[in-house]
Specification:
It is built from 13 helices and eleven strands. The relative contact order is 0.16. With 328 residues, it is α/β, with parallel strands linked by helices. The longest helix has 18 residues. The chain has two domains: 164 residues, Rossmann fold, CATH 3.40.50.10950; 148 residues, Rossmann fold (3-Layer(aba) Sandwich), CATH 3.40.50.10750. The strands form two sheets. It has a six-stranded mixed β-sheet with strand order 8-7-9-6-5-10, sandwiched between helices. A five-stranded parallel β-sheet has the order 3-2-1-4-11, sandwiched between helices.
Length: 328
């Protein structure tokens, strides 16, 4: 069974409730019906019933079995506004209620208050808006100071041993993370990998240097991040700094890494020092290496919030929801 099949099976068993706030997009409505029909999740669409029925009619699909909520008239609106003021003390109840009447924020509050298990958005909103809504509502996970992203990368025949999944981070959100921020990305990515890969996360902090082979301020940042991860999360198996080949190829690790390492040559979580290297690496792995690139997914929030590309297909939305459901 490949990785996606396994995650889809987990999603079906967990039967999570996922709120989709961008219901004025036909792709989202179509994806909700697929989630329902394939029993991958219990979708909730946020929007006016009449508008949704019009879209469903145009698509010739049924909305039966899909929860539809209009945030502007829902009975929980004032309660959600009041709940938001407890964490955003600068907001008056009226201000908070107006904000929560917007679908992105209403969806985030549904997740915060336990009325939904996850929110997936981004078809009609830029990533920064989705992140902003997540920060305002569910907030960040314990010990994490910033949200980040990861891709699930499935290499079809890694070193002649068959398919191999990896987590690549951060490839979509943080352009030039500091050492502390890089540590956050590594910790969040280890948690994501633990939920998804079905194997122990082995986290490699990547650089153009392997264990002191080069000296530069950029290498120092990676070393500092490694030290911070070890201080903050002693249970995470992490090592570095590594060049990419030393991280994932056992024969190269034997040549380049002289000390004992539980990660060298065995890494399944790759932490890139900046967005340039992460974004370039995942695209080259996808297009030159024939890997399947699944994502990006947001991570680091206290409860599951994830993003979509504004060019996402219906299948992309379904896959993202299924992976989020499996990870949650």
């Amino acid at each position: 069974m490949d990785l996606l099949d396994r995650l889809f099976d987990i999603a079906r068993r967990r039967n999570r409730k996922i709120v989709l706030p961008e219901s004025d997009d036909v792709r989202v409505v179509a994806a909700a019906t697929r989630l329902r029909d394939q029993h991958l999740a219990r979708p909730t669409l946020l929007g006016a019933l009449g508008a949704l029925e019009k879209i469903a009619g145009e698509l010739k699909i049924s909305l039966n079995g899909i929860e539809i909520i209009d945030p502007r008239s829902d009975k929980r609106l004032k309660d959600y506004g009041a709940a938001l003021t407890t964490v955003r003390e600068s907001m008056t109840p009226a201000m908070a209620t107006r904000l929560v009447s917007k679908p992105l924020y209403f969806g985030g509050m549904m997740v915060r208050q336990g009325d939904a298990d996850a929110m997936v958005a981004g078809c009609a909103n830029p990533t920064r808006r989705v992140i902003e809504a997540g920060l305002m509502t569910v907030g960040l996970a314990s010990g994490i100071a910033l949200p980040s992203s990861y891709f699930l990368m499935v290499v079809p025949d890694f070193l002649g041993r068959g398919p191999r999944p990896f987590v690549f981070a951060d490839c979509a959100v943080n352009a030039d993370p500091s050492a502390g921020e890089l540590a956050d990305i590594a910790i969040a990515s280890a948690r994501s990998a633990q939920a998804l890969l079905g194997e122990t996360p082995r986290v490699a902090m990547l650089s153009f240097s392997t264990k002191g082979s080069a000296q530069h301020a950029r290498v120092d940042k990676v070393r500092e991040a490694l030290s911070l991860v070890r201080q903050r999360e002693s249970g995470v198996i992490v090592d570095g700094e590594f060049q990419a080949d030393a991280a994932v190829v056992p024969s190269v690790a034997l040549t380049k890494v002289r000390e004992q390492s539980a990660v060298a040559g065995q890494a399944n979580v790759l932490i890139f020092p900046d967005l340039d290297s992460g974004n370039i690496a995942y695209k080259l792995t996808q297009w030159l290496g024939g890997a399947q690139a699944i994502g990006p997914f947001l991570q680091g929030f206290a409860r599951p919030i994830s993003d979509l590309s504004r060019g996402a297909s219906v299948e992309d939305i379904v896959t993202t929801c299924a992976v989020v459901a499996a990870a949650g």
